[in-house]
From TrEMBL:
Location (main, coarse): secreted
GO process annotations (BP): immune response
Cross-referenced PROSITE patterns: THD_2
Family matches, as Gene3D superfamilies: 2.60.120.40
Domain of life: Eukaryota
InterPro entries xref list: TNF_dom, TNF_Ligand_Superfamily, Tumour_necrosis_fac-like_dom
Species of origin: Zootermopsis nevadensis (Dampwood termite)
Family matches, as Pfam families: TNF
SUPFAM superfamilies assigned to the protein according to its UniProt record, in alphabetical order: TNF-like
Lineage: Eukaryota, Metazoa, Ecdysozoa, Arthropoda, Hexapoda
Name the record gives this protein: THD domain-containing protein
Subcellular location: Secreted
Annotated Gene Ontology cellular component terms: extracellular space; membrane
Keywords recorded for this protein, A-Z: Cytokine, Disulfide bond, Glycoprotein, Secreted
Amino acid sequence: MREGNGAIQISERGLYYIYAQVYYLTTESSNSFAIRLREEGKSSPEELALCSVKATGNGETSEVSCFTSVVRFLNATDRLFVWQRERNRRVILRDGCTFFGVVHLNGKRD
């Protein structure tokens, strides 16, 4: 796998466990993100998983986190990325708060 421009590019076909968590510090009630897949040759990305969390929404600052994961067969050159669905959200990027990862579970499918 390679990392670049905020995306993870798959280098070997196989079954993968894909996961992400986003930690928000927000006054907004709705906070959500998606894990997206961009396959080579396709014009638009596919949403693999969606995560949405509701904060208090009463104007007070809340700390909320949202975690999601999915298992998916991926091809070499597929690119994965996290897409924030709403604008102007404060995401905490400290270690252990917000993360994105991929685990290769097995090799090539027949």
